[in-house]
Amino acid sequence: MLDAINEALHAEMARDDRIVVLGEDVARNGGVFRATEGLFEKFGEERVIDTPISEGVIAGSAVGLAMAGLVPVAEIQFLGFAYQAMHQIAGQVARLRYRTRSRFEPQITFRAPFGGGVRTPELHSDSLEGQLGNLPGLKVVAPATAADAKGLLAAAIRDPDPVVVLEPLRGYRGIRGEVPDGDHLVPLGSARTARPGDDVVVIAWSYQVELACRVSDRLAEEGLSVRVLDLRSIAPLDVAAIADAAEACGRVVVTEEAAQTGGFGGEVVATVVEEAFWSLEAPVVRVSGYDVPYPVGMLEERYIPDEDRIAAAVRRVLEVA
Amino acid sequence: MLDAINEALHAEMARDDRIVVLGEDVARNGGVFRATEGLFEKFGEERVIDTPISEGVIAGSAVGLAMAGLVPVAEIQFLGFAYQAMHQIAGQVARLRYRTRSRFEPQITFRAPFGGGVRTPELHSDSLEGQLGNLPGLKVVAPATAADAKGLLAAAIRDPDPVVVLEPLRGYRGIRGEVPDGDHLVPLGSARTARPGDDVVVIAWSYQVELACRVSDRLAEEGLSVRVLDLRSIAPLDVAAIADAAEACGRVVVTEEAAQTGGFGGEVVATVVEEAFWSLEAPVVRVSGYDVPYPVGMLEERYIPDEDRIAAAVRRVLEVA
Amino acid sequence: MTRPTDEQRRGMLVDMVTARVQAQRLWNLQRQGRVGTLAPIDGHEAAIVGAVHALDPDHDWVIPQYREPLALRRYGTEVLDRFLLYNIGHPAGGHLPAPLRVLPNQISLATQLPHAVGLAKGLTLQHDSGVVLVFFGDGSSSEGDFYEAGNFAGVLGVPVIFLCLNNQWAISTPTHLQTAAESFAAKAAAFGFPGVRVDGNDAGAVYDAVDTARDRARAGSGPTLIEATLYRLGAHTTADDPTRYVPPEDLEAARRDDPVDRLREELVALGLWDDAVNAEVEAEALDIFDDAFERACAMPLSDDAMLDHCLAEDTQRMARQRERLLADTGGAGG
Amino acid sequence: MTRPTDEQRRGMLVDMVTARVQAQRLWNLQRQGRVGTLAPIDGHEAAIVGAVHALDPDHDWVIPQYREPLALRRYGTEVLDRFLLYNIGHPAGGHLPAPLRVLPNQISLATQLPHAVGLAKGLTLQHDSGVVLVFFGDGSSSEGDFYEAGNFAGVLGVPVIFLCLNNQWAISTPTHLQTAAESFAAKAAAFGFPGVRVDGNDAGAVYDAVDTARDRARAGSGPTLIEATLYRLGAHTTADDPTRYVPPEDLEAARRDDPVDRLREELVALGLWDDAVNAEVEAEALDIFDDAFERACAMPLSDDAMLDHCLAEDTQRMARQRERLLADTGGAGG
Ligand SMILES: Cc1ncc(C[n+]2csc(CCOP(=O)(O)OP(=O)(O)O)c2C)c(N)n1
Ligand SMILES: Cc1ncc(C[n+]2csc(CCOP(=O)(O)OP(=O)(O)O)c2C)c(N)n1
Ligand SMILES: [Mg+2]
Ligand SMILES: [Mg+2]
Asked: Could you tell me which of D229, A61, D184 has the C-alpha nearest to residue C156?
């Protein structure tokens, strides 16, 4: 997946010379995960900027760069440190178009790794969809495949509105797969059926999609038909796709890594209820982290929903007569 | 309601000399809304501190004060500026107990006015429950009556965990009512039935409760029995009370001021579905702001759910056969 | 040292007097409930006008905090038009149309400072010779954004001028509770570029400092921090009661050094100003204001304006919200 | 000027040598996959040890960033125990039990600085004569938290010492991209208290600077910012490859000024240290380490530990989650 991201950045920067990449360690080091590898050498220090350690000014200067007509692509080294920039992301970036009535086009992209499973220190693994999903004016996408990592990032960069691209830490090296050559764009706001099926649908995004697919494959051996809907976009939310899947299956599981209460999964459940209530044959079941902060290394495997917990939830909604 | 808050602060400071009040303009000016009026004169500059304009250090120094065994009660002048402190509130305050395994007791209270209806400038009216509701370790309460404003604030200050008390701007002067004398504590995490009823329940918090009650009263004249459940606590969420109300009524409306998508209302809907699915006679309906940033003065009346919109939603869930 | 010419100083006084009387008019409208809460400009006129007179409106950008707009006449009357729309709560008040190089007010303190740095960087990347002047208050200097922006600007060496209007107060908080630093200008040491302090009641001195900083910026030598010391002569905002905390003797002393009076007296002494001119300038300022206010109040607003300009295209949900909103209001889209 | 006594310097060297060899052991464990990602201490020993030797562990607080724990031996072996628990990912690693005046590592850069200010204020309010020493890196100084904390500390005049370990790098970012300020010490001008720069490879010089700052703090004269200049001799963390960006000649030069070697040579010259002593200190350090590591690995962990210490009492939902977790793991509550 990392290669797909790096490829998208190279291609976009070559395509549009208004693009400026900025962030901590993105230039000379090529990013702590090498996502920006080679950009500095290729595009130079004017377009690939190592910033001081100030997430606030990374986000805030992106606003200014966009005002000047440039296209900033900023990295937040780990999504948990977006909190340091929340006053700019929530208060300024997301509202630039609205407060200036489109005088300025906020063509701004943020990339940030997130999610657990690789035993990182505090705040490195946190899922912030619950925070970011309630900020109108901001788009938020979360690819689950290498192809989508490329296609969503390219689409995000070209989108006239600000987009946060959430990249699964575990997927950087853990998710491999075909990536279309050349220009490849995945429209923001469109969910994807990752596995067909009609007994039950698991709605997920990011690395949870990978796990849900494995569960689907596993349960297929038992004759269960488990659809997996990969949201891909947190915002805009593909309400129609959620409605279709829920209607078709009648049974819904929603899974995410964040703490249960207030997680974005609640929004998905509410959407299912609003759109497909009469098709529901069982209560929607949420699978999620526990209602505690993302825990330390020895505990994280139990924190993150794994295949067993997702499978158990699937069985649970299927058991309802 | 403002008097109730001021009274609680006076009483608590007199009761517990570990309490320190800090924030912008809270001392010499008694707060921009006079919530902290008289504290500086009574308790002196050591215990009532005018801070520089740095929400981050207000929240961050509260962590340090708590480590020293004090009980900080910090004001964020307007909730929208909590974004400036989100790295401390979400990343530090909410996790102090967890990351130190209770070596330190995070007995920290934040007070912040929020919500619309008084034509404030940008960010002054924003509702952040969607952001704050997904931060385990943090409690969040939102009183809708003067009595609760006193009782929840006192309880928050005495609670060994960090609590954000959301005070409705419109309620400061707009909500009046009996306030019990002397010690008055409202347990955190307990919802309140603001109006009895069994045809439908409107679940709300803060100023929306006031509106929901008026709707209930209005529709009672038509013979409709509209229960109003005042959550009072966003976190901890009174799951049992939500379940009871949903089961008893079978029809549920959830109303909030924030933008629809990703708002805390989604969590409430998800909870209803998890707890009371089989009792539901109609899809749960959300009433909320629109999916845009909180707008300017001329638009805000249309943005905030008003009695008409709540009443229309109530009729809508009741129409379902 | 490039003191402004007498002609320039006269131009400044026109703008200062204009700002002063228009501010009075606006205050009255607020008291009549016709506009929302606002922050009066009184006492800040010389610093703002002096600064922007050192700029080239065709090239240089101005980023206000929120007290400045009435003093930005040099950037064209459109600024006033938009400011009045802003004050009546019309969404178009945030739209300062291109090619105006002025941003709308910033309410979230100090957040405009990182914007200024990015904008300045963007200008240099595009070989645009413009300079960015960004205003902020003494109180706003305590926000992390100020320091992060100053520090990054220093590293980048971008053409930005940080202009601190030190009016001695942040609402009720006096400067000695805001910082223990020797001055706000002294904070530039944290960023590695010059910090200078000027008398903000002296329009010419501010002009001079900004002019020097602008030359420096255009020469590629990087940012400057300027602290203009002055005194907030009015309330913090229309919602504030300064008698609760401003020592009357301090206010009295400050009034004796009113920046508008000071320049007026100087120009009168030079024979460049008199009562008749003054009356004429004031009358014209009010005419322009009243005219602009009338237009602002007549500005149409579509029933679904609330949903416009959030995203370039409505999301699925917004499209439905738009339908519902129009149904509720019985209106048609705009 | 209060240079440490020879006896004190000897004590410092013991701690420095201890840190060095324990760090090597820890690195090896990491390479074996037995502990998680960690940030090596190499090159920072003199600055950290020199600083904490000027403190009184019974009264003064130490707030680390993340490189410091192995050099905090002066605060007791419990610090090592907890640090090893932390490194294996055990939740008890964050619990430094009372009355230890040491906080756990801080990963969110600079967020510890506002904590230090609040803690110092809390101490004075409680008439506790303790002083707070807080560590942070050159890179962390760019976060708004550093400035907000410094500024507030200056206003409050609290007993806090901000100790910047300027190791020339923030991961791959060199100091000249971090700030254009003359030095990190110079940033104190923004706060209105002294900023001093010391050779961070000279344990005695750091001791001296901290001792002076501590006296100042205890006298009620407020904070001090100290910049200790040194060089990061190892990788940023076990996940980093510094050969991608550290110029080898710079690293070589820095190695020639290795702080542990420097003090060792000085004490050898004074006849206060020799190979035998060195071997003994190293052996003891490793014994203590291995013992602590064994205990850490044997530390029990209940099946529902994840849900403990989030709130003083479980919420309704947490109580259910606890039940489910215990059911899933087949375990019993702890
Ligand atoms: C981030 C943020 N925090 C708090 C406020 C509330 N507030 C509005 S104006 C003000 C004082 C600003 O003082 P200063 O920067 O000196 O500007 P002045 O009003 O004196 O011109 C405060 C605290 C705000 N608007 N934004
Ligand atoms: C708020 C925040 N942003 C980014 C990071 C990622 N990060 C971890 S260490 C580091 C460099 C820190 O440099 P410095 O403060 O100089 O300390 P050093 O590692 O050199 O000791 C960065 C950017 C973080 N942990 N926290
Ligand atoms: Mg001011
Ligand atoms: Mg460093």
From this structure: A61
